[in-house]
């Protein structure tokens, strides 16, 4: 992912609550400085990452804006134990 364009990590904000796409509890955050900033005044906010611009820290963006200019995304995969 290093050097790629911004990608969506499956985190949304509805109202005042952050929600993962798969329903997992929101227990960890890696926001860059001054984020989230309620970008674009959007009712629904998506979380994106851009390694080139901010070393993997998160930024919020209006979901409508994210999908007008599609970005990449990350899929969740189950952990596989090799032992």
Automatic annotation (TrEMBL):
InterPro entries: C-type_lectin-like, C-type_lectin-like/link_sf, C-type_lectin/snaclec_domain, CTDL_fold
Biological classification of the source: Eukaryota, Metazoa, Ecdysozoa, Nematoda, Chromadorea
Protein name, UniProt field: C-type lectin domain-containing protein
PANTHER family xrefs: MANNOSE, PHOSPHOLIPASE, LECTIN RECEPTOR RELATED
Pfam families registered for this protein in UniProt: Lectin_C
Domain C-type lectin: 7-63
